[in-house]
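Section 3.1: Structural characterization of target chains.
Under the original work plan, the team committed to producing a structural model for every single-chain target entering the pipeline before any wet-lab resources were allocated. The record below documents one such target. The sequence was received from the expression subgroup and is listed exactly as submitted; it comprises 857 residues.
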Amino acid sequence: RPLPHRRRLLVEHVDQGPGGGPGHQVVLHTFWGGRVNRPWALALEAAWRDRFGSGPAFFPSDDSIAIVLPEPVDGRTILDLVTPDNLESLLRRRLEQSGFFCARFRESAGRALLLTRTKPGQRLPLWMNRLKSQRLLEAVQAYPDFPILLETWRTCLRDEFDLDALRMLLGELEIGQIAWSEVHTPAPSPLAQGIAWRQINRFMYQFDEPPAGSGSRLADDLIREVALSPELRPAVPRHVIEAFEAKRRRLFPGYPPSSAADLVDWVRERWAIPQHEWDLLRTAMVRDLGPDAELVVTEAREKLVFVKEPPLVAMRERLPMLNRTLWEEPGRLEGSEANGTDAEADLGWILGEWLSFYGPVTLGFVARSLGLDPDRLARTAADLVDAGTLVAGPLVDGEAGEWIADTRNFETLLRMSRSLSAPVVQPRPIDDLQAFLAGWQGLGADGEDAEALLDRMGRLMFLPLPAALWEAEVLPARVAGYRPAWLDEVLREGTLAWIGGPGRTIAFGSLDALDLRAGEEPGAAVEPTSGDPADDEDAKQGTDPSDRPEPDLLFPDPEARYDFGVLARGSGLSGSELVKRLWAEVWQGRAANDTFLPIRRGLISGWKTADSEAANGPGGAARFGSRRGRLSLKSPSPLAGSWFRLPAARPPEDLIDAEERKKDRARLLLDRYGVAARELLAREAPGFRWPDLFRTFRLMELSGEVAAGLFYENLAGPQFTEPRTLGLLAGKFADDRVWWLSALDPASLCGLGIEALRRRLPHRREGVRLVYRGRDLALVSERKGKALTIHLAPDAPGLIPCLEVVKSWFARPTGGPARVRVETINDLPAGQSPYLEPIRSVFTVMVEHREVSLYPK
């Protein structure tokens, strides 16, 4: 391939991530210089997010731009993102959010003497300058004409970037004056090795912060909200506080002042250092500086003053203000009453500055350290809490009592606690996810009775699925030899109920947790999905307030259960009208039955009610309670079981109640999937989906209830799980059991948009079933068995158990087929397939020219 030069750009695709890890890298070899590559990289990042929703990592240098991607992307897609026309708008949108802009702002603020400086060659640690710069930037962002902000923009756009040259080069690239070519390499080429090292260096030393522009914005929005909301605020472990204070008070190795000027500036910034902390600081200086530590203290002593009561070290020049503000009572100050008010304001300001170097402390500690009157201190602290400068409450994990802390420091402690609690789990390949979900939800597990059925259904609470799917696909896949009587037995126990929903869907839920079902009002929205106009009209029945029966018309006692005859006599409705009313109530989520038989009969009849009119016959509605009424198995069978009113969903009482309900839904989803991810929640009902609960998962992460991380590759965004599940995620899947599921099953990964599985799994549609042996896909049945795809060899020892699973599809109490006509096997005519011999060992086979009919033996 031609090497890059002034008229040629080379796009290098590296088939590995930084340091040889998983992923893909694209290196744009430009040799255009850093003043051109850096703004181009920022614009590319903004354009990428506009188009794809999330941004990869970009690494510009003088010679090239490296991009780290999870999957390969062709060069044309990248080069078309930024043009001379959209360059400026993209750059303006992205620049101020970048670390490059923050660094230039820090430099500009330092030149303007807005940040603390020391003698030449002596300065505060970089982390402290960064912290001060970040606070200053947050404070001035509300002023669009703030001089230092304008200077930072000017520095970036004029001094650091050459935008005129970039526009010219992009124009030449657009019209073809600059040619480009692509090359694929297994490892970074010599031209790309320098930029590869920069990537490894960044990933090695990067802070534990969310990526810039990530959807969660946890560091900016959620943590601040949690810190200021007592009902949401988690406590921080003591060891996290100690680690934070060791660095904040410059006691950590490498942090103590190293010169007299540095020490004086540190005391000035602290305002007043308690004697015991001064002793700790001197010990840390001796540890780092050796004998020179005493010389530093001696040189600085002339500018310091030692206060005996309380024992403090402060700046000599600030002692008058400390005397007047901290220890003299406001009422005894000379001057007018306003002076006392000013003294109280000064106390609040000094106290806020002083507490910025601590984690949570008690008011007693502050009073003893500064010699303040406890009542006066309590009033000032309460004012600071109201202003949001301080937070108060049980802030320390495992330690009772009232604590106060600087709000920003407490936010930092929450981040540190979150970082330390992050699990270290090697991401599993996406191929392991399907087997994990199947094992988690009990597919192919032991147990063949109602007790096993109840255990499996516990994972599926409040999941709406088409009514026909439950007993045809979902439950038989989880309980071998499934029998409808087992489901009726579970329902009669009274702890579980089925709940109708829009589109003829059914969900199962615990009667004592019905508030978790989707939506706050059960009848808030109905979306008929049947193509039959009669079905649509039936589904709409009862949505109009003027057409809806009064709540006590059908169920006078909301706690009682009624058979159909009692309902008919009590309501005075004809049989057909009562059936319509009942199904309208069912699909609104307001009524249910203690057996599943009405749903089974409704599926057989197609939810038509014509047969019920015949069942009514002479004698009217009263005959529905007698044995003389003629019934058909094809009727919706409203006579079966006992009907009852489902309690209405209780709206949340307040924001705390609403958040607790969301947490319960999040726990339910973790119990359903083991791992919560955007793709897995895509099939859930409103209220249970990723956008509804992402913030709640983050809150639970901060409190330590869930852990966040990358547990499975190729899934978009963060993933959440419970700490108890981490061991299962870290373990290797070694089970070789045979199990099956429908493509429509809640545990199926078909049709979820996972790019790595898109071409390896069939479409998510009716009549598609998959058979697995362990983690490996062994067989796919499509078009209700007409097309088979077998991934095992005809003589493979594991093929016969997989075919035995297919045989189990015939023996269905819910109506299995008498035979299956197979047209193709692995895209070849079934009658000519080499798999006929092993199939004959399991089925009775009848070959009809190219087709094959399978009968169970």
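The first helix runs from residue 34 to 52.
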